[in-house]
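User: Teach me something about this protein's shape.
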Amino acid sequence: MKFAFVFPGQGSQSLGMMSAYGDSPVIRATFDEASAALGRDLWQLVSAGPAEALSQTVNTQPLMLTAGIAVWRLWQEKQGPQPAMVAGHSLGEYAALVAAGVLELKVAVPLVELRAKAMQDAVPAGVGAMAAILNLDAEKIKAICAEQARGEVVQAVNFNSPEQTVIAGHKAAVERAAEACKAAGAKRAVMLPVSAPFHSALMQPAAERLQAALVDREFKAPAIPVVNNVDVAVVSDPAGIRAALVRQAASPVRWVETIRAMQAAGITQVFECGPGKVLAGLTKRCADGLAGGAMNDLASVESTLALVKG
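Assistant: First, the predicted structure itself:
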């Protein structure tokens, strides 16, 4: 079996999510390391909340990165074999890079906090929006966005599955495009409770701040191939990885293509490494014949281990 790990991003967080992994010292140690790098207690936040604080971008991004790496280290501690490839959805790409040895966790955690702040600051509150469009062809959605922009920004930014595409941009333009998508036959067009129009062209100021921050961070060549979101490419050159992360902030997440690229490379099983099971559900819809699974609690880590060890 040739398997890959994928790491979840923003949206998979929930209060008490790490308790599903039992009282694991390696999980707690990972949170302690990340908290020290950040100068605040992430374990207290994930364990006790409040829940509203958990969903603030500036907290969610460091938290989900740490959670993904905590589960990765639990897998390693249990002598789980190394995946043939890794990837991460949006923010999850940073966890994939830490797992692949490109970045140290203590470097990555403050970096994603900065990324979160930069994204939040890029567009004033209330100016931007995002909407999920269900059961409408992605090319049709892109055409509708172009028609409905009218001098504003609205674009497809998350190609999550053939049935789910997320659009983002200026609030009025997103609302116009969402209504037009429904008129064109979309099953649903749901406005999302997010604080910024992530991955749209409006995030360009955030990309520029990220670029400045990345200059002096140490990046190494990956020990495991990482498929990036922005180009659907495996890049081994540290400078190329940096450049892709900068562009990722203001560019679409090409998740369908990422999963299909893994399948084309011979991957037969894709496991979500971290809390939640959103990506595990998307995997099966992105590529026929590809099996997906989640490692969202201790039992599923153990069952995945048994499966891959055969």
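Now, about its shape. The mean pLDDT is 96. The first strand starts at residue 3 and ends at 7. If you'd like, I can walk through any region in more detail.
User: That's plenty for now, thanks!
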